[in-house]
Amino acid sequence: MEETENPIDVRPFDSFEEALKIASILNDCNVTWAFVGGIAVAVHGYIRATEDVDVVILLTDLKKIDSALKKEGYIINEEPIKFNDGFELFRRVLIRGSFYFVLDLLISPEQDGIFEGCLFSKFQNKDVRVISKSKLLQMKRSAGRPKDILDIDALTKG
Prior knowledge:
The protein has helices spanning 15-29, 37-43, 62-71, 133-143, 146-156, and strands spanning 33-36, 53-57, 75-76, 81-82, 88-96, 99-107, 119-123, 126-130. By secondary structure, it is α+β, with helices and mostly antiparallel strands. The strands form two sheets. Strands 1, 2, 3, 4, 5 and 6 form a six-stranded mixed β-sheet that branches. The chain has a two-stranded antiparallel ribbon with strand order 7-8. Strand 7 and strand 8 (126-130) form a beta hairpin. Helix 4 packs antiparallel against helix 5. The model has no long low-confidence stretch (mean pLDDT 88).
């Protein structure tokens, strides 16, 4: 049997690399933000696979962020997904060939309060912000999905 070259561009998704790009975009926008979700879970000690990058922002900064994301080629979905706990999720998608990347922008019902105790650090010359462990656990408990329960268990052991 003869080997043939696969003509489809299937590059692996690198959520860490994309997260750093998102950090740069948000820092350039001069807005208040922090990583939540799988990136934050990893920073707080439990490394697991993640399918997207989740960031909490202020609603007042959404238009500014969307303007910057559009310049980078993101598709902007205007309608939020509303959750019972008061969070709103604005999904943004970047398509590169046959590869796509999902960025979820979350608005907290707490507004500014969600950012209390945020961790600030530099990584690969990028300013990075991560939600505090207590706020992350609060979000995970509120969402209550199976992966959130696993994250809570992993983050509260030891």
